[in-house]
Write a structure and sequence with these properties.
The complex is a heterotrimer of chains A (270), B (74) and C (365).
Chain A lengths: L7 H7 L1 E4 L17 H16 L5 E5 L14 E4 L5 H11 L4 E7 H7 L1 H10 L3 E7 L29 H4 L5 H6 L4 E8 L3 H19 L4 E7 L3 H4 L3 H15 L3 E5 L13
Helix pairs in contact in A: 2-8, 3-5, 4-5
Chain B lengths: L3 E7 L9 H5 L5 E3 L11 E3 L10 H5 L5 E7 L1
Antiparallel strand pairs in B: 1-4, 2-3
Chain C lengths: L3 E5 H11 L4 E4 L6 H10 L8 E4 L3 H12 L5 E5 L1 H17 L3 E7 L15 H5 L10 E3 L4 H18 L2 E7 H5 L1 E5 L9 H8 L23 H21 L3 E4 L6 E4 L2 H16 L4 E6 L1 E3 L3 H8 L4 E6 L5 H12 L5 E5 L8 H13 L3
Parallel strand pairs in C: 2-3, 2-4, 4-5, 5-7, 6-7, 10-11, 10-13, 13-14
Antiparallel strand pairs in C: 1-8, 6-12, 9-11
Helix pairs in contact in C: 1-2, 1-6, 3-4, 10-13, 11-12
Classes of the chains: A alpha/beta (270), B alpha+beta (74), C alpha/beta (365).
Chain lengths: 270, 74, 365
Amino acid sequence: MDTNKLTQQDIIRQGEQVYKKPELLLNNTMHYCPGCSHGVVHRLIAEIIGELGIQEKTIGVSPVGCSVFAYKYIDIDWQEAAHGRAPAVATGISRVNPDKFVFTYQGDGDLASIGAAEIMHACNRGENIAVIFINNAIYGMTGGQMAPTTLLGQVTATTPKGRNVERNGYPLKITELIAQLPGTSYVTRQSVETAMAVRKCKTAIKKAFKNVLAKKGTSFVEVVSTCNSGWKMNPVKANKWMEENMFPFYPVGDLKDGEKADPSLYSKKN
Amino acid sequence: MAKIKGTVVIDTEECKGCGLCIGACPQNVLKLNNDVNGKGYHFSFMKEPDKCIGCSNCATVCPDACISVYRLKI
Amino acid sequence: MGELKLMKGNEAIAEAAIRCGCDGYFGYPITPQSEVMETLMVRAPWDKTGMVVLQAESEVAAINMLYGGGGTGKKVMTSSSSPGVSLMSEGISYIAGAEIPCVIVNVQRGGPGLGTIQPSQADYFQATKGGGNGDYNLLVLAPNSVQEMHDFVGLSFDLAFKYRNPVMILSDGAIGQMMEKVTLGDFKPRLTSEEIENKYGSWVTTGKKKNRSRNVMTSLELNSEQMEKNNIRFQAKYKKMEEEEVRYEEYMCDDAEYILVAFGSCARICMKSIEMARAKGIKLGLLRPITLFPFPKKPIAELCKRVKGFMTVEMNAGQMIEDVKLSVYESGIFKPVKYYGRMGGIIPSPEEVVSTLEKKLIGGN
């Protein structure tokens, strides 16, 4: 066989399909901007739920923000939460339905600004839920305003001259705070800007989901992401800016990989 | 030694021309087309199809799940 | 004559805030009003007048920042949209109970819940009948133009401090987003600490001075007799508002046989409907309440004496109609009151208003 004369059709017919769109990703065109990290993470979640075979017992909780429409894209049951309240909604579902698999999908405004109390307490209680936290340091849906995770000096619609520490405070490393809470078992920070990073992120999310299925407490996966529209750069430049500016401050890697805290450490004797 | 020939099928109407697959490809197979699709995006296509090894990096980084990857061992 | 500029309703709120000597704006992004805070951030008034602009972590936080700042006699304000204002309800009730002056702008969007981002007027009940717990009222102003968005900021602060009460500017997404000419007011300086102490020393929590007793800002009162006295005092305040602060506009009502009652964007649509109806020979007029609380009951009672009926036009399921019916009832003269409205963020067209008027009010269906 002359390999140089193989057509695309030959390869498709005689070869194997090594990648296709996951079945659980619905055919609705995603409303996200070109190059948005949301699309990649949605795809990973769809793949993982399919691979774990848990579609029939999964309930997702979507936030307020660009991913408010997450419920349109993954073929599972969803509940749309009020801004920041997804961990509380997830707690409500999970507590009275302990046999179900519940996860939240939240942005940085949703989780770290208005929802700071809810995520703290869900993680402190060790709710058996997975939290996917998309951190792109900006409010996308409402037009690019500052988020708690916006970096100092970063220009946004409400920090037109760059975030200033006196007026706007410091960028919030919420994941570091979450990792200290006793109810969490797995807290990690990932990204999806290269194929290798995407594969690592998928491994991390799968581990998070498995932990929750094994009732090991809250699993928290931050995905450091881009926002091309908010940052006003094209997707390729946005990835580069993220690598240069976000990663030094929000470094990728596991912050906690273990178990919920030993309750005896919290008893009266100590 | 077995050689790998790969190919990708891109849903050009769903492609938003973000360009991430272009950079992800280790073989420089993909490029944005000068033409645009129905939504006005310059869609990705195989400029150098013979170089494809079916590594699926492009499909892995695609935010819109537009890419299907095929691999043939020869 | 002030500066004449073209801008969005939301931007006019921001410009007016700086010019009327506002001390602080505390807000949170929500469509369709995020431009209020964005404009303030671009203008950077902290460098010019010392005005504080802070993006709070949530609407709940923002309204409590108003409680704090307002309790010290400063002119503080916030803006939000329907779901965000719901979050503020607790804070608004506390502010009313502690008698703190402040200004809240609601640029309404369709609801209920997360709803939609298009305009609506479905927060009328929330604004005028309470939204938070307990017996309290906000003074509510309803602008229908970018100029009024601007003018009502200064007016709201004046009224807020006159009555020691929160004041709400009830706008909608269309007015917030549309661009019109606006004459901007002159810059009024912010009050100095001394001025605040002189004017409001009897209640502001600014640090107990030797020459006054200490001030406590609270809405808590466990002694029921005292709590009733507090409530009686609040009710007297609202009664005074009803007597002195009613504002409204009448358009072609002098010879009208039928009256449309509408506020905000709907009022503007009604003006076109009146033109269309009059071309058909229907003598139609418009009563536009500018204060939704206190509601213009007396003008309606006057109109009851000579018109054949009323129809409200509202972007909701029928809320202001109840106040119109109440006003008609209190006049002692029965007249039919009908309603036409759209929900979900849809703006009624002038044609729909006229055809519904013909069917429901004139036709009696």
